[in-house]
Design brief:
Length: about 325
């Protein structure tokens, strides 16, 4: 059993990866966390069943978690993260003697994974996205309107006042910046836009509690999460909000799967289908999780696990080591 944390230099910065494997001959599955800056590698490691099929790799992206130290703010750019991810795929291919690896990404990780597949397809055997990002500007417009409408229906005057004070986002960006976006997310989560589960209606229970319970993180890594996520989000959000996949990404040259929660208003599910239908890929499939919000990996765990192993298990390329 391989269970190893180490630092790998990506883009000139040592960054933390955690690898778990029961059999190093298994295909490699790289998990791309959300945010930007919101480390949650514990999510994929909670699926211990996957270790019979895959070598799992969690990566703390630059500026947060175990990769918090040493990255100047000016390096917190989307292109740098995509290039970091590519360097990591090359490293993993070389280390495990593979030609290609699998990639899974959630939320921001789905944006990063899509950009990675688009720019550097050669080392990617297949991609799976959930909480799939599509269009930053429309993302925020829809999410804001959902939160406002639900608060009004509930006669939640305090939340309505908060949302009207911060105002509608313009170009995917709130006038009040990070604090305003977090205020909107708080209301959105309160009314089930993240998950219909009553236990996941706030950040603490949805994100902090699972992280602390997982035992995945050292104190130093947790400190890097706490210190880093706000810095990374503030530095990158304007650029992330400007991403527009219907405009810029029309073709992906790797098998491309999206496992999306129908109830998601964090990265609104209604944006996914039109873009996906126009997207060209050698293999593609959009699978809906009808009882899930932003994170079907936890909302519909058994279905997610079954489909992940099924879809990736069927990927074969003659003469290619996966």
């Amino acid at each position: 059993m391989l269970d190893e944390k180490s630092k790998v230099v990506l883009g000139g910065l040592p960054q933390l990866i955690h690898i778990k494997s029961e059999n190093e001959a298994n295909p490699v599955l790289l998990f791309l966390h959300g945010g930007p800056g919101v480390v949650n590698r514990h999510a994929v490691f909670s699926y211990g069943e996957l270790l019979s099929c895959f070598t799992l790799v969690g990566w703390d992206q630059r500026g947060s978690g175990g990769s918090y130290k040493g990255s100047p703010v000016e390096k917190l750019k989307v292109e740098r993260f995509v290039d970091d991810a590519h360097e990591l795929t090359v490293y993993l291919c070389e280390r495990f003697k593979k030609d290609k690896i699998f990639v899974i990404g959630g939320s921001w990780g789905s944006a990063l994974g899509t950009l990675l597949c688009h720019k550097y397809p050669d080392n990617i055997a297949a991609y799976v996205g959930f909480g799939q990002f599509v269009d930053g500007e429309k993302n925020e417009e829809i999410s804001y309107e959902f939160a406002l409408n639900e608060a009004k229906k509930a006669k939640d005057n305090a939340s309505v006042a908060t949302l009207e004070r911060i105002g509608k986002p313009v170009g995917g960006v709130y006038k009040g910046g990070f604090d305003a976006m977090m205020a909107q997310r708080k209301v959105m989560m309160k009314y089930g836009g993240y998950s219909k589960s009553e236990e996941k209606r706030d950040y603490f229970n949805s994100m902090v509690v699972p992280m602390l319970k997982s035992g995945e993180y050292t104190f130093g890594e947790l400190w890097g999460v706490i210190r880093g996520y706000k810095i990374v989000l503030k530095a990158m959000w304007d650029e992330v909000a400007g991403l527009n996949f219907p405009r810029d990404i029309r073709e992906i040259k790797v098998p491309y799967f999206v496992f999306d929660g129908r109830l998601d208003y964090n990265t609104p599910a209604q944006l996914v289908e039109d873009w996906f239908n126009e997207l060209t890929a050698p293999v593609k499939e959009l699978i809906w999780f009808e009882e899930s919000g932003h994170n079907p990996m936890s909302d519909e765990r058994e279905k997610f696990l079954r489909l992940l192993t099924d879809k990736l298990g069927n990927i074969r390329e003659e003469g290619v080591r996966i």
